[in-house]
Design brief:
The chain is α/β, with parallel strands linked by helices. It contains 13 helices and ten strands.
Length: about 325
């Protein structure tokens, strides 16, 4: 049975209004003995104040809305969001996930009705939604100006740099054909191209494919032997590895592959896929601090994923 503020009031011997004020941050108006009785009663009964009620009292809820791109949620992003959920909970905040692909009108209605403490977007928000959020006095935490660190470009650059250092002089970039699986593909491709340019190599050949062996096999036929492929993620690398087996190509002698995300599929593949992983702890901590800071003084979230330390996990595909 759901415990209400009326139950707490009866248990503590005070009015419902007193319970509401004490549990919504106005306990300084009451004697310490009254505050103690209300807090003890709430704890004993397991009372959980409703988000809607708090929003009415304070003008904002304790919910942080995270706008997630229309993308496949892989293990790295899932770990990031799980950690962020736990970290924010320690500050009394609840993380609510919403697809950014939902219609602007429905997102605006949700934000207007919910009055969240903050809106966190993993990508820059459209001007209309930004106007809605800021007009409600809700803090907006989003990627900063273009001059900020672009971690995804750094990932692509790190992949290409590794392949070039291994002696490969012909580099390609493979990315998913489905845009939902390719949210950061442009930035990562730019990073690969920048590394090639820096070393005086031709611009990388770009390959788009669905994540199946048949299409990977077809795309591999368009690559010259000795090509090193920087892959959008480990799934793309695994598909191409399967295609190499179908064609009898030797990895890494004929085709080299570098993935991203350090997922189980990279470690379970034969040979294990050379990949790039992230230290998620600092990223989660930084994102939490940005949101908490935005609630008090405003702020911008560095380009997602924030604060990631990119590290090479050497496998047998390079």
């Amino acid at each position: 049975m759901t415990v209400t503020s009326a139950d707490v009031a009866r248990h503590a011997g005070v009015s419902r209004s007193t319970v509401s004020q004490i549990l919504n941050g106005h306990g300084h108006r009451f004697p310490a003995s009254t505050r103690g009785r209300v807090q003890a009663a709430a704890s004993e009964l397991g009372y959980q104040p409703s988000a809607a009620g708090r929003a009415l009292v304070r003008g904002a809820s304790d919910i942080v809305v995270a706008l997630i791109p229309d993308m496949t949620v892989g293990p790295t992003l899932q770990d990031f969001l799980n950690g962020l959920t736990d970290d924010l909970a320690r500050h009394g905040l609840t993380l609510l996930l919403r697809l950014a692909s939902a219609s602007p009108e429905s997102t605006e209605r949700m934000i207007t009705g919910l009055r969240p403490a903050a809106v966190m977007s993993l990508l820059p928000v459209p001007p209309r939604l930004r106007e809605c959020v800021e007009g409600l006095g809700v803090r907006l935490v989003e990627p900063g100006p273009a001059g900020d660190r672009d971690v995804n470009a750094e990932i692509g650059h790190a992949q290409a740099q590794h392949l070039i250092e291994r002696g490969y002089r012909r580099v390609a970039y493979a990315r998913p054909r489905d845009p939902r699986q390719d949210t950061f593909g442009d930035q990562r491709e730019q990073g690969v191209a920048r590394a090639c340019e820096r070393h005086g190599l031709p611009r990388p050949q770009v390959v788009r494919l669905a994540l199946n062996v048949a299409e990977a096999t077809a795309r591999l036929r368009g690559l010259q032997a000795g090509t090193a492929v920087a892959c959008y993620n480990d799934e793309v690398a695994a598909a191409l590895l399967g295609g190499c087996r179908e064609l009898g190509l030797r990895v890494p002698r004929d085709i080299a592959l570098a993935g991203t995300d350090d997922t189980p599929i990279a470690r379970l593949s034969v040979p294990a896929i050379t990949t790039f992983g992230y230290a998620l702890g600092p990223a989660i901590s930084e994102a939490s601090q940005e949101i908490i800071g935005a609630l008090s003084a405003g702020g911008h979230l560095p380009a997602f994923p924030p604060g990631l330390e990119i590290r090479l996990v050497q496998g047998g595909t390079t």
